[in-house]
Write a structure and sequence with these properties.
Elements: H1 4-9, H2 12-15, H3 23-34, E1 39-45, E2 59-64, E3 67-71, H4 77-83, E4 93-95, H5 101-104, H6 107-116, E5 123-127, H7 131-141, E6 150-154, E7 159-163, E8 167-173, E9 181-187, E10 190-193, H8 195-201, H9 207-213, E11 218-220, E12 223-225, H10 227-230, E13 231-234, E14 237-242, H11 250-255, E15 260-265, H12 272-277, H13 283-292, E16 297-303, H14 311-321, E17 325-327, E18 333-335
Parallel strand pairs: 3-4, 4-5, 5-6, 14-15, 15-16, 16-17
Antiparallel strand pairs: 1-2, 1-18, 2-3, 7-8, 8-9, 9-14, 10-13, 11-12
Helix pairs in contact: 13-14
Length: 336
């Protein structure tokens, strides 16, 4: 029996249909054909190398359907999960941008919590060169109580490293004085069923709908139904995450046309020289790249405590270059 909120969301004609498929399969078909899952991003930590009373070390949680991806795991991340009312046992993957402490010090504690909480999935951990070695050291030092499988993969080249029929993950190498990666989460283009047109057609759910989604015309009760007349194209979406890095020529192409470009903002333009020396970007450089790359929204994170009393300084510098710029705080949620 379907949940009430699910029934309310369905087209009326579907409620009268005598299903030839099992309810569970019907629900899957309905979700696949009609409902686009949202990307939900929770900023668990938004500070730079030194956390403050208001900002935790960097960590970003991305949810899309059953996929729950943690990007970096700074100190205190597992506590931020509790504050955000998120269940760490739903984690599927961890993406590590680089192995500086403020981005990884929360890993041992999180792994232990998963073990104590009965985590029963395979946890996939991806990172730049050196990730396998560092993870081996963590496992030697911290003896986990409880067992689950952890698979670690080093992403050494640019391009896709994980892919499903629905989305893929890709990486690009950055420049930070230590191996570092940027990541894209990309939902693929899709063909969606037009609910109103399908209602008029009175086609039953099942293989016919699947064929329509694949762009194939179908026949039902002696009549031909054209896929192009019952479907529409839905453009995919890209979420780009570029944290600690010096300015480099690869960023613009990597984040091009992103729905969201999430980027570090440790330095204002007045500290551009210092940013360069420390292999970071100043906020004006970040915004300029975002504008050239034609991203829809720029999200500023990895905020230095030097700007805590005047956050508008950072935000306004970005907005002068790209109006759709936003500065996040801990536990902020962005949905796309």
């Amino acid at each position: 029996m379907f949940a009430l909120n699910f029934l309310i969301a369905e087209p009326k004609f579907l409620l009268k249909t005598k299903f030839r498929t099992k309810p569970k399969l019907y629900k899957q078909i309905f979700l696949l054909c009609f409902m686009a899952s949202k990307i939900k991003i929770t900023f668990l930590g938004t500070s730079d190398a030194i956390p403050s009373a208001r900002r935790n070390h960097t960590s970003i949680f991305l949810n899309y359907g059953a996929e729950n991806i943690l990007i970096d795991c700074g100190e205190g991340t597992q506590r931020q999960f509790r504050k955000a009312e998120l269940n760490p046992c739903k984690l599927t993957k961890i993406l590590i941008t680089h192995w500086h402490g403020d981005h990884v010090l929360g890993i041992p504690g999180l792994l232990q919590t998963l073990a104590l909480s009965g985590y029963n999935k395979t946890l996939y951990i991806y990172g730049p060169r050196g990730t396998k070695k560092y993870m081996e050291e963590i496992m030697k030092i911290f003896k986990l109580v409880g067992k689950y499988e952890i698979k670690v993969e080093e992403i050494l080249n640019k391009g896709k490293f994980f892919e499903t029929s629905d989305f893929y993950l890709e990486a690009e190498q950055m420049e930070h004085g230590t191996p570092a990666n940027a990541y894209n989460f990309v939902i693929k283009d899709k063909i969606r069923i037009d609910k109103k047109k399908l209602e008029k057609s009175r086609l039953p759910l099942g293989p016919l709908i699947k064929n329509l989604k694949e762009g194939k015309d179908v026949f039902y009760q002696g009549k031909k139904y054209k896929a192009k007349e019952l479907t529409y194209f839905e453009k995919g979406k890209k979420i780009s995450v570029v944290l600690d890095t010096a300015v480099n020529s690869r960023i613009e192409g990597f984040v091009k046309n992103a729905e969201l470009f999430i980027c570090e903002s440790s330095f204002g333009s007045e500290l551009e020289k210092e940013a360069r020396e420390r292999m970071h970007m100043a906020v004006n450089q970040t915004a300029s790249i975002a504008k050239k790359a034609k991203v829809k929204k720029l999200i500023l994170t990895h905020i230095s405590s030097r700007y805590e009393k005047n956050l508008n300084q950072i935000l306004n510098e970005a907005k002068k270059i790209l109006k759709e710029s936003y500065l996040v705080k801990d536990l902020d949620v962005v949905e796309v």
